[in-house]
From TrEMBL:
This is Uncharacterized protein. The chain crosses the membrane at residues 6-25, 73-94, 106-124, 130-149. Keywords: Membrane, Transmembrane, Transmembrane helix. The keyword Transmembrane applies.
Length: 156
């Protein structure tokens, strides 16, 4: 449950799927985006969770594919969530860059650009049986999803 130290290529793939759209977004932020009123506690939880998730997902080899079993369904489910995350980014980049468009739900999933990767990392932690990633995903989830929900409430 603690994890085996070693490089995770699956973790690297997940981080690339996470970081590349965010780098593109930094140059294409919503025209009406304002992050000056974000809750400082949620922001702290988000940052701590980001660092812990990034480290955990890279330094534990438990996420790498060894053999296929029924337990692999956790990995498949997690990866599907990351695919949906990418679809949400494509949807955002192909439409008008507004907060409303940025935060719109996906298949009834609220704030999908925040909730999908958090859920994916949580499921990846379960797949790898790594408590550090599970805890990190919960921490980032509280901060990141909380901040996004605040933004949604502010634009309504």
């Amino acid at each position: 449950m603690l994890g085996h130290l070693g490089f995770s290529y699956i973790g690297l793939i997940y981080l690339l799927m996470l970081f590349i759209p965010n780098i593109i977004w930094s140059k294409n932020q919503p025209i009406d985006y304002d992050n000056t009123q974000e809750n400082k506690i949620l922001l702290l939880l988000e940052r701590v969770g980001q660092v812990c998730c990034t480290c955990s997902v890279l330094i534990f080899s438990d996420f790498n594919i060894v053999s296929f079993s029924s337990w692999s369904l956790w990995l498949i489910s997690s990866f599907l969530l990351m695919i949906f995350y990418e679809i949400c980014w494509i949807r955002y980049f192909m439409n008008e860059h507004t907060e409303e468009n940025f935060y719109r739900s996906f298949c009834r999933i609220p704030v999908p650009l925040a909730s999908l990767p958090v859920m994916a990392f949580l499921l990846l932690g379960i797949y790898g049986k790594v408590i550090w990633l599970i805890a990190s995903a919960i921490i980032i989830g509280i901060g990141h999803i909380g901040i996004h929900i605040q933004h949604v409430k502010a634009i309504k």
